[in-house]
């Protein structure tokens, strides 16, 4: 038991500090459990090799994998983006309508498409709504993230946390008959209550607590405060960089400077300019600090000419499309854990990073060696075709919707029918249908329907096959659609939950928490579990908190004579609605940078919401399922 607690402590430290990527941490957990559980070593964790790798064969892991692919298929058709544009047309420049449209689209859709890709799709749409409607994106992006979490609780497939909780509940049902695997609409009635109450909070109170971090009139140069890092210089005739290419010039001068543009004879050149030869009299626009520029001047290499102060001065007049955009780094991106230097970002995409936001901090100098993390937002300058390439790459979320996006709109009916089948075949009460048809027709063959049970795992995998067969997805795209770090996270933490149960750790923790039952009624203990799960989820993965908290919650319910299923639901809802911090849920990270938020903004808006929903959810569980 102590060994398992030690492994949990190591996992918590690594999740919080992000010294290792979360998927690598999960694999480390798996390895430690198997090594320390092997016969002939110490056999301290009671985890065999087959149990240690059981996370890969878990129905939860495979179902999440399939749902990620199905969500990708929906996004490829552009149906969410089309709804987003209709939302923009409805919203106009009225903040209340903008909020209503943002919440009204993201919430319900997240019940049937995994809420993480929903937010990734809608970030550029909502950002455009804000700027066209003369509203700060800061007023809309946190509501977008929170609303997607509300919607994720409408069905089993709204979020990976629900699927994992259902799997853990089914595993624990062998010891606790009151537990079972969740049905598709198991908690929809409470999910609707949470969606309505949460939406009303955001519409009336929440948005008023949000500051306008990003200016209404978007100007990236001023927003990122990079004016002092932008300089215009003229190349002198005796400069050593005359006759060299831009790439060689940057390597030749050994200090931190980026050549953003070359202006020659009133013609402006932006990326790709690496192979453009520099001539005497060229005007170069640089990203460099004052000391670096002074070195240029002191060496007689360049002559100072001025400073660009706005976006317009950085974007060439002859280029009609946008050349300055923000891109968000999602989980699974090759940039995570890399620096701009090691990732060769500029060379790969013919794009220059002017600054970036990381966990609320704006980084403007010495960026090349700074490690990039999930949720970081890069301010990038590139030619329009390079921006198009970035927007089509799953490694980035470009916070700007392209004018002519390439969607498979002709496949919308196929995708909709497939998703309806995936959900419908699980939701249909086949036993009732079979019995009714047998009674009406007298045909005994219908009795076979009574025994039919299609789990979401089967219908989701069938949906993947159907998406490829109908051309909604290309075969190679199904691998790109999977967030492999999430899959490895699930595979690594599932055996940790098994170890917690088998060593008696869950029983011990449950007994300790059950002691609060001496002072609190069962409803109060349930509320404590909701709050505890919410706080833990705020610093570690929501999936990890479910695996750690569910066995303890069930043991606690058993100790105080309460309904274990009620405690399972409380933990599930709390883990799937993590409002307190930007790192508690991936959708919060997606909006962190584009909204210009600080860590405290999530606390300011999320804490009252978390408290409100803790009361609503706990009372709702008691009303619908009883304690």
TrEMBL record:
User: Which subcellular locations apply to this protein?
Assistant: Membrane
Q: Which GO terms describe its biological process?
A: potassium ion transport
The UniProt GO MF terms for this protein read: monoatomic cation transmembrane transporter activity
One annotated Gene Ontology cellular component of this protein: plasma membrane
Query: Ranges for the RCK C-terminal domain?
Result: 218-302, 312-396
Topology versus the membrane? Multi-pass membrane protein
Q: Which domain of life is it from?
A: Archaea
Which PANTHER family does the record match to this protein?
BASIC AMINO ACID ANTIPORTER YFCC-RELATED
Pfam short name (any one):
TrkA_C
Q: Which SUPFAM superfamilies match?
A: TrkA C-terminal domain-like
Q: What is this protein called?
A: SLC13 family permease
Q: Keywords in alphabetical order, please.
A: Membrane, Repeat, Transmembrane, Transmembrane helix, Transport
Report the transmembrane regions from the record.
7-36, 56-80, 140-164, 184-203, 415-432, 452-473, 485-505, 525-553, 565-585, 605-625
Which InterPro entries does the entry link to? Cit_transptr-like_dom, DASS-Related_Transporters, RCK_C, RCK_C_sf
Q: Does the keyword Metal-binding apply?
A: no
